[in-house]
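Margin note: ligand = geranyl diphosphate.
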Amino acid sequence: MTMLDTTTEVLSTRYQKSVADYWNKEQDPVNLRLGEVSGTFHHHYGIGDVDWSVLEGPEGTREERTIREMHRLEGAQADFLLDQLGDLGPADRILDAGSGRGGTSFLANLRFGCQVDGISISEKQVGFANEQVRQRGVADKVAFHFRNMLDNGFPDATFRSIWNNESTMYVDLHKLFAEHARVLTPGGRYVTITGCYNDVHGRQPSRAVSQIDAHYICDIHPRSEYFAAMAANNLLPISVVDLTAATIPYWELRAQSSVATGIEEAFLTAYKEGSFQYLMIAADKV
Ligand code: GPP
Ligand code: MG
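Resulting structure:
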């Protein structure tokens, strides 16, 4: 274990410690039952049209069909993110910032054959993801590390692509993008899928957005802050896609499922009233 891997080095504030505690304890069926469908465990939401026929048919298997459908939509979200990463191949190295149980990282390795590093401030998640590395036999290509995305410890210009799949709401964006820009190669691609609050709706987060913040102990940023922090750190947006309409069906299905966690109505309210947006932003390092 290097100095960088000690708890005090990685978790530099009490806030970060509290976030790590949340994820170290997290065992929600909404993540574990869905992950068991295919063995790929995600920590993000879904996009795309729901096949509502899952709610019809034999009652005994309705729950299983619903969970499979939610997992399919989360997989579609990860696939969409990977579509934005650019032309990657086995020689490339890429970084998953806030890698959770590893889902998006494994899908990236399967698609591109490239070397993937994932980082998380949750030692439990890192341990879970590295156990998956062992089971999948991909230790030569995929590795997860107990590290902080604001001080990731990698040398300058290490990665061809970096992404945050719903993990930017835990950090200061200026610090994050400065660190990303440092370790991206020139011309490298950055991608995030995130929930952000809508400046047009108001200069402060709405009640529903504040409820989401409280639920996850996070600090959802306004849309404007993403672009300001990118511009300040030589990250030039090339594509922005509003996925709000595409994620609402996932939340409608999740609200009716046995694995709902209680935060579903806040997401549906926030999205439908326009105070909150689910965005994909891709940018190039210049
Ligand atoms: C996804 O993880 C959620 C977050 C990382 C935090 C908030 C995200 C926003 C877009 C605001 P998860 O899959 O563990 O959440 P859940 O347990 O609710 O499914
Ligand atoms: Mg989840």
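The radius of gyration is 18 Å.
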